[in-house]
Design goal:
homodimer; D-amino Acid Aminotransferase, Chain A, domain 1; D-amino Acid Aminotransferase, Chain A, domain 2; 2 domains; 8 helices; 16 strands
Chain lengths: ~270, ~270
């Protein structure tokens, strides 16, 4: 771990990331010493920092610190956390404060290969996401909803939990974005009120544009998922998992999902 | 500061309080070496920990660690943060993990005396609180809404910001609870969908019960505030501030507010 340029694992207990979750983060796949889609990840990080008024470190500083860790750990999941920095008591953010940066690399989680090929079982979480347009889309450190949702199931056969919002729209997985395929068209939930807009979501949308496939970003309900030809979840670490099974839903053929999966895994941006 | 029993200021960057805001806290007024309403504060802390499935340290451990700091700093604001502890990657909470406890004392914020006597000017925040019944009432570490709301004004003449929810209900201040007085009755917002249920709010409700004053915990709108005879805000550090001025609202007489204020400040629970 490198914290503000120094090797170490400790942060100040008055850091606003700790006191208020006042920060953002990214998890990125690291393979053969390279971070997959690094420039795009940095752009997302910077975008999220700007949304919260947090000073984002330069790409040069972050890349140098990542490289320092990658030299010893060329495989795994790299994570960057940026917080607003150390604060005094009180919610009001102090604009001139130095942000805190925490860079780390963890071993990749090990998932069975059939998650990608044959698809996964998912669980419909009871917790409903609240609406907060001001935070929607941002990968921020206020993640209690995800924590509580992930606590709802322990069965290791369940790969992911599906999150709906308070109005019953399907929004995302606890750590992934969701797509539906219906009659050759793509559908993905509108994330303007809640949810995290992940990088792989952007890439699937890019695939669709490149291949002339119609995509709708819209309000979707559970019934839309149940009626879909295929459904899949994406994130930067798992890649793409087709959904094989969910309450009231069972599919065993994923031609479009595998086409997109192949593109995500093999096409260099 | 005392962290897990050791004097120090640093926590692990993998602490779930830092990575996900996965924890709760309390701010408590400390005067002449005593924490005001300590048993009640501990009960709230424990209640909030239980709501999130976090192991709450015993009152004995926390009191001993507080006493250790109070010996050197008998005046100020004492703060306790409890997080779910150090975690591995991933949202899923590990139930057997040891929680982290951070105890600190800061100097009391200095507010002009007339805030309590003549009342304060408040600002109506643009940010609207999202609904999340699962987290409503809890003083948890996911406080980005409060941070963004507090960033909306810099004028030091504005003492507090009023927060409405997405449906236009008045809910609370950025760091306080709200009461209205109308025809001798008390009204305070329902906090079942958002907001933090502070200890002073409970005490005002207790005052009302003891004094046979009717209290309604209900949906309240800005128009209800504008039509109120008196309105005031409470928290454990500020005590009670009558609201003197807000857009469309001006009052200069606060008989009920001062009656309750006197009781809050002087009656031992």
């Amino acid at each position: 771990m490198i914290i503000n340029g120094q090797v170490g694992e400790l942060i100040h207990a008055k850091d606003r990331g700790f006191t208020y979750g006042d920060g953002v983060f990214r998890s990125m796949l690291l393979h053969e010493g390279k971070i997959n889609l690094w420039p795009q990840h940095f752009n997302k990080l910077k975008h999220d920092c700007i949304s919260l008024g947090i000073n984002c470190p330069s790409i040069k500083i972050l890349a140098a610190e990542l490289d320092q860790l990658i030299a010893d750990q060329p495989e795994g999941v790299a994570k960057i956390v940026i917080t607003r920095g150390i604060g005094t008591r009180g919610y009001s953010p102090i604009s001139e404060s130095n942000s805190t940066r925490v860079i780390s690399i963890s071993p990749s989680p090990q998932y069975p290969d059939f998650f990608s090929t044959n698809g996964v079982s998912i669980y419909i979480c009871h917790l409903r996401l609240g609406h907060q347009p001001r935070l929607a889309g941002i990968k921020h450190l206020n993640r209690l909803e995800n924590v509580l949702a992930a606590a709802e199931w322990q069965d290791p056969g369940i790969a992911e939990g599906l999150l709906l919002d308070e109005e019953g729209h399907i929004i995302e997985g606890t750590r992934s974005n969701l797509f539906l395929v219906k009659n050759g068209n793509l559908y993905t939930p509108d994330l303007s009120r809640c949810g995290v807009a992940g990088l792989q979501r952007d890439r699937v949308l890019e695939w669709a544009t490149q291949n002339g496939v119609s995509t709708k970003i819209t309000n979707l309900f559970l019934d839309d998922l149940l009626a879909a030809d295929e459904a899949f979840m994406v994130n930067s670490v798992i890649g793409l998992w087709p959904i094989r099974e969910m309450s009231g839903f069972k599919r065993d053929s994923f031609p479009i999902s595998h086409l997109i999966q192949n593109w995500l895994n093999n096409v260099l941006p």
